[in-house]
Amino acid sequence: MTQENISNTIGFHGVWVDVLIPLQADFSIDEPKLASHLRNLSAKGFENFVMFGHAGEGTSFSADEKLAAVAHVIDAGVEANNLLLGVNSSSYAEVAQFIRKAFARGVRRFLVSAPMYDHPYSHIGLFDYFDQLVKQVNQSNWQLFIHQLGGKNQASDLPEVTLADLKKAHPQIFVGIVDQDIHVNHTVELIRAFDTALAIASCHEPNLTILNPTDVCVSALANVMPNVIKHVIANDFVNNATKVPGMKVAKPDDRVTELMTILDNQPQVAALKLMLSQHYRMESWERVRPPQSALTKEAKAKLLAAFKTFNLQATE
Predict the structure, then answer these.
(1) Model pLDDT, residue 142
(2) Can you say how many angstroms the Cα of residue 217 is from the centroid of all Cα atoms in its chain?
(3) What percent of the chain is predicted at pLDDT more than 90?
(4) Pairing status of strand 143-148 against strand 109-113
(5) Which pLDDT does position 116 carry in this prediction?
(6) Which of 12, 72, 197, 223 has a 20 to 30 A CA-CA distance from 191?
(7) 76 to 10, 36, 69, 102: CA distances (angstroms)
(8) Which residues of 94-126 are buried (b: 16+ CB within 10 A; e: fewer)?
(9) CA–CA dist 33, 23 (Å, integer)
(10) SS3 for 261?
């Protein structure tokens, strides 16, 4: 079975938008604005969403805040089955309780990272954590995706032996890995180790052309240019180049490289939120949830000038 077959079998394919989360002045989630953002993406043909992943500042929100936001977007028309919901805690009991509550609202896919307090943990400790988590959820028809943070926090990655043992113990539950690492070799090694067993999705968009053919990705850039990311994973460059006024025609992978160059050395979530604030003409989209890093005035001015030159097109 190939990666494509695995992705299709478990319903995890195409572009999954790593959703940015809009905030109110008190840094609580702006649920109506969130629902509006998802409707806008849906209108462009993108209906699969990772909520409270890396771009969604998942570690900054409480379980109650996440569950309330999920309930709001589902009530607003988002299909629960199209959500991959991020959750993290050093307590497997808390994670299991969260999953059971979201499961009751129809969510079936969950993105779980390893516990990060007092790490590194042993293989046995990590296996027992996830084994107990699955047992406490006590449901058969849900999907567990492991969030490998990679370069973001190498110590909290599950080693291959733990991933393999977890797949053996819970083959119907543990179905995929979302790889946050920016190094393509990290993703390649996961694919080599689990090519016929698990769906592997990269989050680092510049790596997608190297990983082609690939059937799935989790993308923060898809908040602002989803069609570009769709063409990148489809390896469809020639027929989907962007004609930017005053510039040469740019292929989708060129646009990804150009935007990543602009974002370089800036807090990516804050920078993408600034870009989205320009797209929606809503300054409130710039807010990030503490302890996430906000942009300095100098960085904001530099990014705004670069975004103007980048000239994001509505069709992207």
Answers:
(1) 97
(2) 8
(3) 79
(4) parallel
(5) 78
(6) 223
(7) 25, 9, 10, 16
(8) ebbbbbebbbeeebbbbbbbbbbeeeebeeeeb
(9) 8
(10) helix
Sign of the torsion angle spanned by Cα atoms 91, 93, 98, 103: positive
CA distances from 151 to 106, 135, 164, 186, 194 (A): 33, 30, 21, 9, 20
Find all residues with CB under 8 Å of 157, minimum gap 6, and list them.
114, 148, 149, 150
Helix ranges (H only) for the chain are 3-10, 31-43, 63-75, 92-104, 123-137, 160-169, 184-194, 208-211, 226-233, 252-263, 268-280, 297-310
Name the pLDDT band for 247 (thresholds 50, 70, 90): low
The domains of the chain, with CATH numbers, are: 3-235 (3.20.20.70)
Question: End-to-end alpha-carbon separation of the chain, Å?
Answer: 33
**According to the model, what pLDDT value does residue 3 have?**
60
Tell me the DSSP string of 136-191.
Answer: HH--SS-EEEEEE-GGG-GGGSPPHHHHHHHHHH-TTTEEEEEE--S-HHHHHHHH
Contact 26, 286 (CB under 8 A): no
pTM: 0.93
Whole-number Å distance between alpha carbons of 105 and 111: 16
Q: What radius of gyration, in Å, describes the C-alpha atoms of the chain?
A: 19
Closest CA to 225 of 255, 269, 270, 268: 255
**3-class state of residue 206 by DSSP:** helix
The distance of Cα 97 from the centroid of its chain, to the nearest Å, equals 22
What is the C-alpha to C-alpha distance for residues 229 and 255, in angstroms, rounded to an integer?
9
- CB-count exposure of residue 43 (10 Å: 0-12, 13-18, 19+): exposed
Residue whose token pair is 């370069």:
151
